[in-house]
Amino acid sequence: MTELDELAARARAWMADDPDETSRAELARVLDGLPGTAADLADRFSGPLTFGTAGLRGPLRAGPNGMNLAVVTQAAAGLVGWLGQRGASGPLVIGYDARHGSLSFAERTARVATGAGREAILLPRPLPTPVLAYAVRKLGAAAGVMVTASHNPPQDNGYKVYLGASLGGAVGAGAQIVPPADAEISAAIAAVGRLSTVPLGDLGVVLDDDIVESYVENAARVVDPDGPRDLAVAYTPLHGVGAQVLAAAFARAGFARPHEVAEQAEPDPLFPTVAFPNPEEPGAIDRVIELATVTGADIAIANDPDADRCAVAIPGPQGWRMLRGDEVGVLLADHLQRRGVAGRYATTIVSSSLLSKLCERRGVPYGATLTGFKWIVRAGEDLAFGYEEALGYCVAPDLVRDKDGITAALLVAELAAGLKASLRTIGDRLDEIAAEFGVYATDQLSVRVDQLSEIDTAMTYIRTKTPGSLLDDAVIAVEDLAPANDVLILRTESARVVVRPSGTEPKLKAYLEVVEPVVDGDVAAARERAAASVRALRTETAAALGIW
């Protein structure tokens, strides 16, 4: 038997156990196209879709290396079995977004759970990921599943797992899984036998909108009920599921309804007006900035499709600009500290180091973690606020132990309205922080690759040819977190570079930071010097990675 014959036999065996007629027909077409479709078939069977700390995420297609009903059935059976082995009590709560396949994947997960004798609770409709994270805590669940690919391209979907208090503990209740749970669940998934033997029950309990109302009511409490509310906001959910919940939260908090980008307001799994449904991608928020200009808005806000991230744009002398995640993170931390919110303020090793200086000067507990909210929310039981530079903010850890683009938008609105009432702007507050601490300029070099081996090559290159200087300053520290984590950190007296592969996309990322002191109160001049230094650091980092 040839290698192609063996591959075709594997595909036919998979088809025989695949519960989805559409997927079976899809694989049949690929088999009928052999040998011309050999590469496609080989990719679909190159291995199972990897279950890690981000759960599952991949292209919607038939076969073990894709998101489909068979893979979801196996994942759900493994997860439910693992919960049983660990003696976790409580229901499995399941949420889903509006992507292709999300509803059917959510319903199949519920039926696998009830078939195994565990109560399943489905959210009532496509909703933001923060609502699912809230529901896990609110309903005392053993675990939660959110079917979403967040800001990935339209052809993808995903499967995120959250733990309840019984397995997550005080800091992990309602948070995403971390090792060793991911490896244990992955092993349980691999141990699932033929899918035809997995028992299926009913859908369990389908909630009404009371759970959404509960989330909205509590989300509105993140802002001071007596604060200013005069603020005009332009908003887009980027074809995702955030619009209704955000509008309800703004109304409950006393803000005027934001102006919405009409052509992006309703959920659309094709994301037709953007190249990538990610606010960080070039051009993604152009339409909301256009709307902000036309309506005379004070700020513009964008959520990603599952509304766990929040992008902010502000007007300035050179027109509108989107704030970096580090800028918003420090603004929100500063705002909460000024409000007297006590506790630990945390971010990741790739985010700006400005938050650490802010906390140090004000005597506030600080935490630095590995990349990802699963780590940020575990920075301590006293966590008051956490953020990551990729537009993720946890402003109310007792409400949602994860990033939450709805409550973050509310807090941004409170900050902007308060500044407006005193005839100032968010730009003014950023200048005040810079005048006190210096300019902390950050940027990111992000390289999308066709083959993951390209990332390994670049990481090997910089490790073997580590530069001795950056921006003509000596590299005074090199921290290599391998093998536990594929991260390399280079530091000079006034600059830092952190290099790592992306955990969710085929990208190599380098996080850049330059610190520039403000001389004689001239913040603008310091920003110009910092911007020039970051551009130069970007070029040097690319060369150090061997990619340019």
Automatic annotation (TrEMBL):
Keywords: Isomerase, Magnesium, Metal-binding, Phosphoprotein
Domain Alpha-D-phosphohexomutase alpha/beta/alpha: start-end pairs: 50-164, 214-313, 325-426
Domain of life: Bacteria
UniProt keyword Phosphoprotein present: yes
One Pfam assignment: PGM_PMM_IV
Residues annotated as domain Alpha-D-phosphohexomutase C-terminal: 478-520
Record carries keyword Metal-binding: yes
Name this polypeptide is given: Phosphomannomutase
Species the sequence originates in: Asanoa iriomotensis
Organism ancestry: Bacteria, Bacillati, Actinomycetota, Actinomycetes, Micromonosporales
